[in-house]
Amino acid sequence: MLAALRSAVLREEPYGPIGGLPEKVRVDRGKDFLSRTVTAAFGLLDVTVEDLPAYTPHLKGTVEGLNRAVESMFLAALPGYARQPRPGKRASRPKDEVLLGFEDFTARLLDWTLWWNTEHCPAPLRGKTPLEAWQDDPTPLRDVPAADLWTFTLEDAGTRTLTTRGIRFRRRDYAGPWMTGQAGIQVRVRFMPHHDHRIEVYHAATGRYLGPADLADQATDEQISAVRRARAARSRRLKKDLEASQRERYAAVNQPEAPRRLGALPTVQAEAELAQAAGTDLSDLAMPDLIPPAAPPADWRTPPSLVTRTAPGRPAPVPSAPAPGRRPGSTAQTTEDGDAS
């Protein structure tokens, strides 16, 4: 009942344009309309509820006329219609007639409602459709934000976990700008029947309302921009927190003394971390003592860390002096006997 009230009051898409808060609601002694929950909801919206006396259909003639039109123009043409006219007026229906499912019936009813409001011109409206008559009515309207009617929805059973992709509901992903930084919490979902473009989300443990979530693959440009702004703001906030954590701070003093850095590292903790880091050094894990590196040439400069691990290299060859009577750079020629000439 509250979901139907929400659908009737909201004028935004896809509920509108007809809607708005009424000043008075007349109830024909229906127990579902007179329940504590519904009357409390009307009271919060400042709507007067009037319980009509029995057998007074003339006090709500517009509704009665619409009900007769629905029955005679829509329901009577459906398969399985039980309220047949008097015998002789219409042929009986076959017994093997295939009845409509709930989804098919709902789709046909919505199509008929659209036709009634936008194409059909009832005689009392003098050539106007109900939508045109509504738009020409100068009566001021009272609107209520959709966020204030989040409880006027159906509650889905069970809890769900909010992830980085949003909320998974009926094999679809729903996301909202308020979800940034909320991954991991348990939530519950409220929804509107036949309107799967948006769901209402609240905290599973506290019942606190968190906000709406729109279908991820049907989000509008404004919704996508809002999500991006929220993510950018969170990124800037995390960056500032990181910069603040890296900034050095010192304890306040009231007399001259050596500066004391806040968050100083104790000696025991430093030694423990260094010992743990030493076990991950690749140079130590390579076991150089098992296969020592080859000795470098003597004219190379050996790093101090490798001097004790390498054997001394062979001395570099010294070029010999040229023989007497030979020009520097000339090569000796040998004879067939191997003597140099």
From TrEMBL:
InterPro entries: Integrase_cat-core, RNaseH-like_sf, RNaseH_sf, Transposase-like_Mu_C, Transposase_Mu_C. Residues 238-258, 285-341 are annotated as: Disordered. SUPFAM superfamilies: Ribonuclease H-like (SSF53098). Coiled coil: none annotated. Pfam families: Mu-transpos_C. Residues 1-138 form the Integrase catalytic domain. This is Integrase catalytic domain-containing protein. Residues 240-250 have a biased composition (Basic and acidic residues). GO terms for molecular function: nucleic acid binding. GO terms for biological process: DNA integration.
